[in-house]
Write a structure and sequence with these properties.
heterodimer; A: Penicillin-binding protein 2a (Domain 2); 3 domains; five-stranded mixed β-sheet; five-stranded antiparallel β-sheet; 14 strands; elongated; B: mainly alpha
Chain lengths: ~575, ~150
């Protein structure tokens, strides 16, 4: 442009010439600026229309999907729950839900046929109603599988669309029903760990439990075998680490599938391990005997007269496995003599016995990782008769988990055990609270071993392991009266008895005797064999060597001098 | 005047070329951003499918299911409580000389030179098949019938 102006300019000389020239050059600078400005506009147009145009159209088309697929758009994903070995127990998956815009449906008949093939559980008449509706939105199926989604995408029907939402998935189904718990549709924990650790899980953090998937399955398998063998109505089983209180397995039967909670009945959802309180009977003899050793300077040779039933007020205390003679402490324990234990209770005294039970955490609700906790039933007025019956477990009801924790405290050297499902971040979880002397714990381990080698718990023995334990058979109280036909048969035990590592408890509700048990439904026939089967499985699962146990050095052998035969002569029972 | 023309020429050339470079850079940035977005989307999709696969893996490893599969598909039975020992080298039985007779087709020197493996994880590597395997008569029934 400036060239042009140059050749067509009128030639002027002198001073004026320079001023014209100046004006020309200013004009041309201005012109160049405008040209550049237009040039930039053109470039920007090209950029927007051609280069970015392609992308932005893609963005618009996908913005809807992207929005609903965007993780942050739906609130943070709930954390996962794992077992102690990192097996997945609960996770959250983004699942598509299928909806339809009925206005865009072209051929409702063929569409409903196609959908019925892909999603077989659809209700045909309901589907037709949705497809013919006069509105612009209708759900067809919630939370479909990825394979189903792919099939629907392959249909290519423009009226169908997906909404994405999070769904809680429990890959193990029923196995951890009562401890892991479940959430509502919006991801709010309603039971178990899901409820008590809701604050942690809802911020997206994972929770690692102390449970072991393999042991959990073994306990469930053997417990359900015991329940079906003896046509019982329910049962519960637990494995505890005897020193730390970590729960390795905890089962309550009947259970329910966590993925279909709305189909579960109240009976299935009831947590018998931590919420149910039961009179567990003779197991309390472990604690009354421990109290006797801990509070009084008595040795194993101390005798109790169990020849005649004991009468206290309107109560008569009888023996189930009656020996009708004078018994030493090991004999009272291994024959599970109610009379003997009641006499021990009398010797300890009501207040002392109550305090001892209380120190073991048997009289108050537990402080535990899940909130479904039962409150123990304890007599409000503690009379002499209460003391006598409480010393063999009558009139006291606790949760099975509390009971097994108290047994762990007795056998582990006398340190209080608090059961836990979630390991605290610091490794130092050894108990600091002493509830009885080490010597008492030592004596109790011998007595518990004796029950399995010679007493009521023989069926719990497993070759290669020093198992100790105690049976408990209690009559259920129905409408305020004890029903002799309805029993609670349980077995609590630990192994290896010289330094217990595991405490197990099995409880079976209302077992009925069968041919194999000669009609008996007592703990020694129902719960003890299940206990033995679980220990056998544990040995294989955890790789526990069987050659560490030497029958020649069994701790219960020391008690043999205190065992007398029926006639009262000081004779060793043949071993 | 000529100097001015060159001056303007240079300025305009600089402006145009810097504009061009700027646009090029902005293009590259936008392409890179698109790329990042695409990878983010892909990553999210992959992470989601990993979660689905993990859940499925956990579901398939349900011990009850594995137990069923083992009982129907394998000739294995549950271990006995006495089957597990703390140290295999202390076990008397495994320290004894093997009383197993030599395999039918293996040359005798093979058996003698083979190290005695106490490690239970030892998996024997298949050896070269013996040369005389072609001549061996597997069909004992027929032979017996002919006799």
């Amino acid at each position: 442009m400036w060239k042009h102006s140059r050749y067509n300019a009128i030639s002027i000389d002198g001073e004026r010439r320079s001023s014209v020239y100046m004006a020309q050059s200013r004009l041309s600078i201005l012109a160049v600026c405008f040209v550049l400005a237009y040039f930039m506009v053109v470039l920007r147009l090209l950029d927007l229309a051609i280069i970015q145009g392609e992308v932005s159209s893609y963005d618009t088309a996908n913005s809807k999907i992207e929005k609903s697929q965007d993780v942050s758009a739906i609130s943070a994903r709930r954390g996962d729950i794992y077992d102690r070995n990192g097996f997945l127990l609960a996770t959250t998956l983004k699942t598509p839900s299928l909806f339809v815009d009925p206005l865009l449906v072209i051929d409702a008949g063929s569409l409903s046929d196609d959908l019925a093939v892909i999603i077989p559980q659809l209700d045909k008449s309901k589907l037709d109603r949705v497809l013919h509706a006069k509105n612009r939105f209708g759900w067809i199926a919630r939370n479909i599988t990825p394979a189903q989604q792919q099939d629907i995408l392959n249909l290519g029907d423009p009226s169908l669309g997906f909404e994405y939402e999070y769904k809680r998935i429990y890959p193990q189904g029923e196995l951890f029903a009562h401890l892991v718990g479940y959430t509502d549709r919006d991801g709010l924990g309603l039971a178990g760990i899901e409820r008590s650790y809701n604050d942690v899980l809802s911020t997206g953090k994972d929770v690692n439990l102390t449970l072991d998937l393999r042991l959990q399955h073994a306990v469930k398998r053997e417990l359900s075998k015991a329940i079906s063998d003896f046509t019982a109505i329910a049962g519960t089983g637990v494995i505890l680490d005897a020193k730390t209180g970590e729960i390795l397995a905890g089962v309550s039967l009947p259970d329910f599938n966590l993925n279909t909670v709305n189909k579960a009945s109240k009976n299935q959802m009831f947590n018998r391990l931590t919420l149910g309180v039961y009179e567990l009977g003779s197991m309390f003899k472990i604690f009354s005997t421990a109290a006797l050793f801990d509070l009084h300077d008595v040795d194993m040779g101390k005798t109790f007269d169990a020849r005649t039933p004991l009468r206290v007020g309107r109560f008569t205390i009888n023996d189930y496995h009656a020996e009708k003679r004078i018994l030493t402490v090991p004999e009272v324990f291994m024959h599970s003599s109610n009379i003997g234990s009641a006499l021990m209770g009398d010797m300890i005294g009501g207040e002392a016995l109550r305090k001892f039970y209380s120190d073991l955490g048997l009289l108050e609700p537990m402080d535990f990782d899940i909130r479904e906790i039962g409150k123990p039933l304890v007599p409000s007025i503690w009379r002499r008769s209460t003391t006598l019956t409480a010393s063999y477990g009558h009139g006291l009801a606790t949760t099975p988990l509390q009971m097994s924790a108290a047994v762990a405290s007795v056998v582990n050297g006398g340190m209080l055990v608090n059961p836990m499902l979630v390991k605290p971040s610091n490794d130092n979880i050894k108990s600091e609270m002493r509830v009885m002397s080490e010597d008492t714990s030592d004596k109790m381990r011998k007595l518990l071993r004796l029950v399995v080698t010679k007493g009521t718990g023989k069926n719990a023995d497993v070759k290669g392991f020093a198992i100790g334990g105690k049976t408990g058979t209690a009559e259920k109280s129905v409408n305020g009266r004890y029903d002799r036909k309805k029993l609670i048969s349980s077995f609590v035990g630990a192994f290896p008895m010289d330094d217990p590592k595991y405490v197990l408890m099995i409880m079976v509700d209302e077992p009925k005797g069968n041919k194999k048990s000669y009609g008996y439904a007592t703990a020694g026939w129902v719960a003890a064999p299940a206990f033995a089967r679980i220990v056998t499985s544990m040995a294989a699962i955890l790789g526990l060597p069987a050659d560490k146990y030497d029958p020649q050095k069994d701790i219960s052998l020391e008690l043999l001098p205190y065992l007398y035969d029926e006639k009262g002569g000081k004779k060793l029972v043949s071993y | 005047m000529k100097g001015n023309i060159i001056k303007y020429g240079v300025v305009i050339a600089l402006v145009v070329s810097s504009g061009g470079v700027l646009m090029n850079v902005s293009q590259q940035v936008q392409t890179a951003e698109r790329e990042v977005k695409r990878y983010d989307r892909k990553l999210a999709a992959k992470e989601e499918s990993i979660r689905v696969l993990k859940a499925e893996w956990a579901y398939l490893n349900n011990p009850a299911r594995l137990e069923l599969l083992v009982s129907s598909g394998l000739s294995l039975s549950a271990a006995n409580s006495m089957d597990i020992i703390s140290d295999i080298s202390n076990d008397e039985e495994s320290n004894k000389e093997p009383s197993v007779s030599s395999p039918v087709f293996a040359p005798a020197n093979h058996v003698n030179s083979a190290p005695l493996h106490r490690d239970i994880s030892y998996v024997p590597i298949p050896r070269k098949s013996p040369v005389n395997i072609k001549n061996a008569n597997f069909n004992n029934n027929n032979n017996g019938g002919a006799r």
